[in-house]
Amino acid sequence: GGSSDTPGGTDGAASDATSDTPVEGGTLRAVFAGAGASESLDPFAGTSPVDFVRNDVIYDSLFILRDGAPEPALATDAEPAADGMSFTLRLREGVLWHDGSAFTADDVAHSFRYMSSPDRPLPSELQMYFDMGNVTVEDEHTLTVPTVQPIGDPATMLASFPAKMVRSGATDFSTENAIGTGPYRVAAFEAGRETRLTRFEEYWGGASPTDELVFSSVSDPQARVNAVRTGQADYAGDIPFSTAKAGIEGSDLEIRTAGDTNRTGFAFVLNANRAPFDDPKVRRAARLAVDRARLVETVLLGYGEPGNDLFCKGARYFSEARPLKRDLEEARRLVKEAGAEGAKVVARSAEYEAGYNDSTKLFVQQLREIGLDAEEQIVSLAEFFDPAALEEADSVTFSSSPLPLPVIYGRMAAYPSFALPDDEFGAAFGEAMAARTDAERRTAWAKAQDVMADRGNTVVWGVADILSLARTNVAGIEVRDQAKYPYLGKAGLA
Amino acid sequence: MTADSSTFLTAEGLRLETADGPVLDGVDLSLTRGESLAVVGSSGSGKTTLALALLGHLRDGIRHTGGRVRVRGADILPHAPAGVRGSLIGYVGQDPGAALNPYARIRTTLLTAAGRLPRGERDTTVRRLLERVGLPGDTAFARRYPHQLSGGQQQRVVLAAALARDPAVLILDEPTTALDPPAKAGVLRELGALRERGIGMVWISHDLIAVGAFADRVIVLDGGRIAEEGPARRVLTAPRSAAGRRLVAAGTRSTARHTRTPPASGRAGAPTAVTAPDTGAPLHGANPPDTAAGSDSGKTDGPVLRASGLVARHGSTTVLHGVDLAVEDGECLAVLGVSGVGKSTLARCLTGLHPAAAGTVALRGTPLAPDVRGRDRRERAAVGLVAQNPAEALHPRQDVRTALVRPLKRLCGITDRAELDRRVRDLLESVHLPPGFAGRLPGELSGGQRQRVALARALAARPSVLICDEATSALDTVAQEGVLALLAELRARTGLAVLLITHDARVARDASDRLLVLADGRVAATGPTPVLLPPGDSPEEQVTRLLTAPAGAVRPTPYDTDRGASLV
Amino acid sequence: MSGGIPTAPMSPTAPTAPTGGIGTGGGSGTSRTGPRAAYAWWGLCATGLLLILLGPELAPHGPTATPGPPYRPPAAGAPLGTDHLGRDVLSMVLHGGRPLLLTGLLAVGIGSVFGASAGLLTALAGARSRLPRMLLMRPLDALAAVPPVLLVLLILTALPGRVGLITAIALAGTPLSARVAYAAAEQVVGRAHVEAAIARGESRCRLLGREVLPLVAGALLADAGIRFTGAVYLVAAAGFLGVGGSSDADWGRLIVEALPGASLQPLALLAPVLAVALVAVTVNLAADSAGHRSRKVLA
Amino acid sequence: MTLLAGPVGRRLALRVATGGALLAVLSLLVFVGVDLLPGDPVTARLGPNATPERVAELRAARGLDEPVLTRYAQWLGGLLRGDPGTSFSGKPVSEMLADRVGHSALLAGLCVLLLVPVSLAAGLYAARRPGKPADRTVSTGALLLVSVPEFVIASGLVLLFAVGLGLLPAVSLIPAGDHPIRHPDMLVMPVLSLLLVASAYSIRVIRACAVSVLAGPRVEFLRLTGVRERTILRTAVVPAVLPVAVQVWLVTGVGLVGGAVLVERVFAYPGVGDLLVTAVLGGDLPVVQAIVMILGAAMLLALVLADLAVVLLTPRLRTGGAV
Ligand SMILES: Nc1ncnc2c1ncn2[C@@H]1O[C@H](COP(=O)(O)OP(=O)(O)OP(=O)(O)O)[C@@H](O)[C@H]1O
Ligand SMILES: Nc1ncnc2c1ncn2[C@@H]1O[C@H](COP(=O)(O)OP(=O)(O)OP(=O)(O)O)[C@@H](O)[C@H]1O
Ligand SMILES: [Mg+2]
Ligand SMILES: [Mg+2]
């Protein structure tokens, strides 16, 4: 069963998880945004939706996320040591690689080393938590993994970051050598164009329904829509709101949402390290000033709802609180009180995702209404995350899908311009990371998010639906970690 | 005048106008099959306009306001029906250089004119056509492009193209102006043969002698009207109209010899010019000459312009192999040579437009840079050139005034507006053009008018040496006489030296002091004109003899030796 | 042309005013649009120009105002509806003309003048001198070898803002302009009147401007006219790449931004496209008629 | 006549030599210029996922903290050995470019192949009727086409032919392992969109040149001698127009190789233009540098060819005549 059975909050859009179950056989053709020639079968190299979606069905992780909670996959258990400074990883037995060899602890040790190698273009973020080079293999199916800070819930971390398992010794991921344990094996691959995958009959989780999966990379959203519309594909991921709003004629097509626990939170992260947002009052004023309804209507075209300034709605331990009401009077008062009237505010943005720049433009106007001298700074993608420039910016436009809370807050803490310098928050965050039981974690996260809600530096103004276009008979599509990268290992045509 | 049944081409009451007035007014004309009709008239009298009208074409700016032109009874104005031009009426334009397609080889031009031919016949057709006009028929020549031909060669190619389709009538607008006497004789023979074969001709010419030998009937145009018409013999011997009388008189009278002033040392134009009474001198009047010609610095002995050992190449072929020449103040040196021998190239070498590959050009003893860009203002002003092709020599978008003002400003440094206007008026007057022409564009001028503008432009800077490359070829006899008289006067009064490149034997004989004959890229002969072309005989025949004589048959004359210059 | 020349009354064929020259020009088939039609045409152009230049003053809303919901169809307050941000399309179009026109015309003007001069100078120097070829054409070749998008990026990095944008567009257009000019002039420079001018020692400026330019102006104007639309979209591309220089309401930007929602609010796309098209057609036809005088003679 | 031995051969040799020198200059400009582009390839690649320490680490690992000239020398060395380096995505640049350059060249080549007859025909058609309604129609039509951006035209074509009529595939989803040439149905609309946009420039320039030639004395003379209009066009007008037109065609064609970004996007065509923009946006400098070098070399080659074409097509220059 899928995770997102909750019906989509938006009228006219079907949920991604339909009640139909796919029938045996056939070919499912799906189009996703790609990264052109830099796409890769290396499961740690890809950065685009099609990379994630493709590599998800070729390779497996140790744990997967389901409803925000870790679920065993190639590993059956990750048990932290008493001091939290290491954990024992037990692997599933009877798992076969696509070439027929058996999956063992050596493969895991190699995978850990490979993904965290400093030579990689994108060394795994897991090394912020685990000492991945110093894994010890206890036996064929057991390993011990040291950590760099106390980690109470290693399974969640292993599930949250792309940590696919590759065969021991694998460094080359050309079409012939892209060997995983997943439900599909590679038949043909051309970066930026197409991947053809055939079913792996010996898959440990039970063979998939569909004979063949074909993924095409199509960067332009309208082109993805056109591909489905004209029958060149069955499923298109991540389509624009305007397409949905305009509607698609054709009785066998439907626009689906990933459900309201799988929405993307859109935010402005305020730089709490410099004036004026170093003053909690001004931060609060900005949150009071933002016209959430208007932003949702304009930027999301109504596909979503106002946010409550906390990231990761839908994730585990998320604090549901009511969004602040817009109150310009109060906001102006706070600004005046903080002596920040006419303060210069630079709102930095790049079109990292659709809607960044538009929301920034509107935000700037709204900030001006409360007496701040706001101006947008729209830059190219390549410049966007330049650390020096980020430190100079007062607000950075940002978004996140409902990642597990440790991931998002860990990331923000690591970025000086995103971090919230607040002792209370820091303590609660540390507690949450080290907590070993569910209850402890729940209280610690509640505490941390209370601080964020009170004087935090994130203005999560809305959560946006993730839309896809599918033929009505496409079934079995699941959301695991992020709805933009759905899991198609169980999908097929009904 | 009504056309009888054999009439092929008629014009009835033809009236063509420009914005300024009529160009042709009530012209009646008829041509029967096989007849040869000559149209003569002073420059600008409307001959070319008439010829074009007979082809059903009006130049821009000319309107058809009355009368008609018919071919075999069908109107061809304002639009000529397909099939008239080329196959019925062939045309040889006044300005071949401007007419040939620069992108087509000679062969292609001829084949295009000949129409559809079986593949096998093409080579022979091209050869036959080229040989008919006295050009080499070999493949290498047929593969040349127009820019690789001399002016005379170009003209003959155009003629060959017109013959290609054996039209019923040929309209020839001054078809021999750029031809040397032997070549001209050849072409005339060829045309005579055509006439024998019953091909009609309308022939526009300034060359009354050729006309007399050739035409059945002559029409004299004057200011766009027919001044008189009649059998050739009668019109040329006893013209009844004033215009006809003028033309004939000028054409048969031996131009008064303009001998050069004695080459006494120290004699120069300067004192003469400066002290000249301010009265009737249109050109070198009130203003002291401001060029080297007039300054006293260069008043040394010896020639004003001397070239020695000039070698010139076009690509890999050498055209001039070491030419020596010298012109003295006030002297007129005529350069003769068959068409294509390199006369224009020589002129361009002297002016620095075609840098010589070897040899020197010296102005009053000072060597000049081979490339005109390397010469200073004085040096540029001192050597004037009237290029062979007047149509190309004038900027199509610049009016006559601008053409004349530029050298005045640039080379004489005159900036005063009134002074400029006065000089422009004087210059135009000196070449017998009305001052109103200052506002015209070259496209609105007749061929002869353009040539006179080009001449006036060359004179504007008051050069010490004037190189005239066929500067009178497009002029009628009256105008020609005027121009030669002007040159003579300038020579006498200001010491202007003239290098006269010409095919016109009569001009060479009557206007020059000395002759220089080019053959095979070398100086074949040189000497005083009276020696080489003694008066009396037909100058054409003498020149033909000179040009066809084996190299070295004519020896340098004592005149050269006694000047101490070895010229051969 | 002939202004100020004393024309003697005796002249049988006194020259007429300059219009005579124009009227008689134009080759065998050129239209003889009367002066009336020409005035009407120029009047229309002038009106359009004025409208564009005054546009920002006429616009009912500011360039950043968002008076309505996004993608609203035409209604009383907003005759062309609103765009993706809820901005009034009419106002945006009115705001977008002036910056675009000024940037475009300036950039194209500079680029074409520079390119044409380089091309003409080189053609004029001819085979005799390699120097202009080496100093002008070869560097331009190198410039041509840099893709325009990258050129824009590089220049805007070094020189942000409108000046950079103008420089970038001008430079992007220069190489081809130079080549078109060179190739066209190459057919003309051998003519005897150019030689005569060289022999007179005319300055290079005069040689280029008076002797050669009029004979190749048609091709150059056609080149510059089309380049103008190229400039419009280079401005848009700069915006698309997130590098500054263009204002919010440049028509190019408006078009790029309106495309995703074209099915919801086609007017937001059509209005700026139409505006660009109108200006492009006008600019080009104006260039044509300006070149009309000079292009009749080339060969 | 052996062309290569004559003046043409000398010119060509010289041009090729200067072309090589220019390429060297270009390489330095490109490397340094691209390096100076704003943005940091490492942060651009890592996005918000990286801590500053990791960024610094990665910069060191990629050798980005060495002086630019050192890196240039290394890069140039690699280039000469046929190795343009490694993309920030970890893939060898050569592998990323391998097919895409060819695919884009195919698109551009097909476009130019059609552009030549289309622009000649339209340009001459208009030029023969200057100022007449036919001329206005062609000119205005061309201008309208060029002023509508290519992605609007491309989208319009998709709406018409793919979504509306269902005649052609909306997206060029070329199967893995296949060459686009094997799927002509997927090439039709991309080529057509490029053609519609690119032809305006050629048409206008050709028209302008042809108008002046047609009004000149040579054509007048040919007409007077009864040469048919068609022959006049072929022998006198086209040759005069070609030297200019060839420049435009070649430069347009090469420009399309890297410049058809938006059309490639609309049709998801696997070309190099999209890659270039993606790489620029993503700060993937090695890829940008390699693409720009390839496009630059192609452009320089095209320019050499264009120069050669002018010489070959202008008899006065071909025969090495006077200035
Ligand atoms: N650009 C050129 N390339 C090659 N050959 C040329 C070129 N120009 C002229 N020639 C050749 O050089 C020779 C000399 O030409 P030039 O024009 O000097 O002759 P010319 O004596 O003036 O003849 P004409 O009396 O017919 O004008 C001719 O044979 C001509 O074919
Ligand atoms: N397009 C024009 N516009 C205005 N006037 C013109 C035009 N063409 C010719 N003329 C004038 O018409 C008159 C006749 O010109 P035409 O060319 O017929 O003379 P022509 O008899 O051939 O003279 P030439 O012997 O000098 O060639 C001249 O005065 C000339 O200036
Ligand atoms: Mg005449
Ligand atoms: Mg000659």
From TrEMBL, chain B:
Family note: Belongs to the ABC transporter superfamily.
GO biological process: transmembrane transport
Keywords: ATP-binding, Nucleotide-binding, Transport
ABC transporter domain sequence ranges: 9-248, 305-545
PANTHER family tied to this protein: D,D-DIPEPTIDE TRANSPORT ATP-BINDING PROTEIN DDPF-RELATED, TRANSPORT ATP-BINDING PROTEIN
Name of the protein: ATP-binding cassette domain-containing protein
MF annotations from Gene Ontology: ATP binding; ATP hydrolysis activity
Pfam annotation, one family: ABC_tran
Segments of this protein annotated with the region Disordered: 244-304
Automatic annotation (TrEMBL), chain D:
UniProt KW Translocase keyword: no
GO biological process annotation, one example: transmembrane transport
Cellular component terms (Gene Ontology): plasma membrane
PROSITE patterns given in the database record: ABC_TM1 (PS50928)
Topology of this chain in the membrane: Multi-pass membrane protein
Protein location: Cell membrane
Domain ABC transmembrane type-1: start-end pairs: 101-306
A family per Pfam: BPD_transp_1
Lineage top rank: taxon: Bacteria
Ranges annotated as spanning the membrane: 12-34, 105-126, 138-171, 191-215, 236-267, 287-313
Keyword list, A-Z: Cell membrane, Membrane, Transmembrane, Transmembrane helix, Transport
PANTHER family named among the record's database cross-references: DIPEPTIDE TRANSPORT SYSTEM PERMEASE PROTEIN DPPB-RELATED (PTHR43163), PEPTIDE ABC TRANSPORTER PERMEASE PROTEIN (PTHR43163:SF3)
Family: Belongs to the binding-protein-dependent transport system permease family.
Protein name, entry field: ABC transporter permease subunit
Protein's organism: Streptomyces alkaliphilus
